[in-house]
Amino acid sequence: MSKDGKLRCGVAGVGYLGQHHARIYAELDSTELVGVFDSVPERAKEIAERHGCKVFNSIEELGAECDAVSVVVPTDRHTEVAMPLLEQGCDLLIEKPICTSVEDAERIVKKAREKNLIVQVGHIEHFNPVMEFMEERVNNPRFITADRLAPFNPRGTEVGVVLDLMIHDIGVILKLANSPVEKIEAVGVNVLSKSEDIANARIQFENKCVANLNVSRVSLKKLREIRIFQQGTYMSLDYMNQKGHVIRIKGMTEIIPEEVPIEKHEPLKSELASFADCVVNKKNPKVDAKLGQTALEVALEITRQIREQMIAEGSIK
User: Alpha-carbon distance 113 to 26, whole Å?
Assistant: First the structure.
């Protein structure tokens, strides 16, 4: 903690998303942005000058001066950055997905447990006010559909669209269904990259809830929506615009529509404020490393099925 009682925070990786982690740590009353590290020194210098903080020349230097660190490097580098920071005693917020393999996720979980440290995974939709509404109103979903579309952006293509985008919806439906996964069926195609750019997954849970997830990173428009069907209720919600409506059935024939009363806010700011609170008060995060690992396991099974299909079709080797 700093002299004025603030949590000393740092950011590893200050690209498109990491720059916002730095901004928010500088804004929050409970945190102090100590400094940043990036593999591109000029970028680190730019962000550090913007917020009046230090530039660190290595992950180890960053960890030595921080209580907590956001790991916002490309997914395939999460483990190599997270492990030394945990060894140094830093609590971590690791952007989603937690890493690229179950083995590495287990290493991170084990090290955090050994060191009695917090690892929160950056499944940001859990801090969207839409999710807060669903947590209050969803009690026994029978069918969930989620659509997440985005225009192509080379950023994030070190992994396929399942680990890049669908992972958000996987984390949400795991929480809402609240049941072990029984069966997964998936299809996908690559369009502009060597891995899948469009994918669909059908997930059946042991409680017989079914989720259908559609995702694309070669769309002409952005879309992030979820629809939930449960006894007597249908919900249609929009993460991006933080709005939606609910249809309730009264009696046998009366249909009652209502707009969802959502108070809009910046999900990333809520996520980082919650992370800081968990670190200071040693509370379990809303999205802890174990939930992050489970979401990864589901995403990797979807990816495996798609890759086998693409190899059989000859679209990849």
Answer: 29
Longest CA–CA span in the chain (Å) reads 67
- Digit-by-digit pLDDT tens for the chain (317 residues) are 766 789 999 999 999 999 999 999 999 999 999 999 999 999 999 999 999 999 999 999 999 999 999 999 999 999 999 999 999 999 999 999 999 999 999 999 999 999 999 999 999 999 999 999 999 999 999 999 999 999 988 776 788 999 999 999 999 999 999 999 999 999 999 998 889 999 999 999 999 999 999 999 999 999 999 999 998 889 999 999 999 999 887 776 778 888 888 899 999 999 999 999 999 999 999 999 999 999 999 999 999 999 999 888 887 76
Distance CA 86, CA 81 (A): 9
Q: What is the pTM assigned to this prediction? A: 0.91
Alpha-carbon torsion angle 131, 132, 134, 140, nearest 10: 110
